[in-house]
Amino acid sequence: MTKPTIILTYARSLMALTVGQSLRPIAGKLIGVDSVEWTVLGFSKLCDDIRRVPDSNTEPEAYVEALIALSREFLDEGPVLLMPVFEDAPLLSLHRDRFPEGVTIAATSMASIDQVHPKDRLARSVEKWGVPAPATDVVEAPCTGATGAFRNTPPLIIKPAEGVGGRGVLLVQTEAGLEHELATRSGTQLLQAMVEGEDYCVTAMADGKTAFAISAYRNLEQYPPHNGAGALRETVEATPFKAAMERLAEASGWTGTLQADFRWSGDAADTPMLIEINARLWAGITHSVHSGVDYPLLLARQALGEPMPEPGQPQIGYRSKLPFLWLAGLTGSSLDEADYFAQIEDSWNTLARSDLTVQHRIARLWRDMTDFETLKEDISAALERGKRAEGAEADISVEEAGTAALGSLFILSHLLRHGTLPAEVKNDPD
């Protein structure tokens, strides 16, 4: 049997690196694509080629056309599997019929995605499906003077209907705070009732009728704190979420990977509450794979119509940390300030106008980012919090993937091109 050419998007991410590690053995060729120059996958030893394509967010039509053209290049060699790694999954699912015969998109159908994405659609769907979820108001922003008309009152969670990595998610404590958020935000916003407990990321495979290979983890640390991406994660028992995941798969007709966020007290007498479903691979995919369930391989085999291997059992209690975010999170309030990122951007733009070489600019920027005066007040707290990560495995190591750790240079690549930090590391609603 001819091995497929596998194209992975969002090559900048550790997610793509993990997917590449899982799929390299079954790929005839492995191609990474992204809109930026320096990528994690590009610095690894996994890929046969890295291609630059338009940005899926700012140039969606050009992005799709570029991937169609790229797919055609390899069809003479056999089947092509295109696996969207991050938030381009809905876009590629929408346009799957435009790809030539022999190209498979590893994403669920748009009919399924439309029921849960953007997040305001999920809020409406769960009521119909009978899946326990917090009461949610759907609001169009900006708006003023309307808070009295909502079911939910502060304290509550406000979040944009579209967003990833916790960007734009905020706990609002007062009516005045809610008025401010609604007046200054734009687009569809969700006002979600508070639910006691912790956040749990629950993952599974689905076949259109039910969910299987179910696993769950919780974030012990996040960056930015309280509402950012997980920096220190722990695998937990998934049984409390099993019925809800099976119902979600059945009601939506979902196929492929299924990821849902729940909030739960941890008490068996309490019901986990569904917070959201992400129609894409999740940021903690590396943790899930290392914990014992190889979702990328299961997804690829399912999409290609091939027999799937045994899914494996998640290792309960397994912990992992994402070094960059974990170390940043340890510094506490120093890096939890919005103006910290603005200072980095200002520093870079100042350096960009200087006569220094790029190498010297990068060195100077790193010095500014790690200024001891900025961080020293939090060193003691960082040491205490660091004890939580003892025994946790790193999500990435140079030994595993050559120089892939240099993919953090994606941040510098973005600065070089745009003069701003990428949205993935900022807690912005846009």
UniProtKB/TrEMBL annotation:
This protein's UniProt keywords: ATP-binding, Nucleotide-binding
Domain ATP-grasp, chain residue ranges per copy: 123-304
Gene Ontology MF terms in the entry: ATP binding; metal ion binding
Keyword ATP-binding assigned: yes
Pfam (any one): ATP-grasp_3
Matches recorded under InterPro entries: ATP-grasp (IPR011761), ATP-grasp_PylC-type (IPR003806), ATP_grasp_subdomain_1 (IPR013815)
Transmembrane feature ranges: none
SUPFAM superfamilies noted in UniProt: Glutathione synthetase ATP-binding domain-like
Keyword Nucleus: no
Protein name: ATP-grasp domain-containing protein
Source species of the chain: Maricaulis salignorans
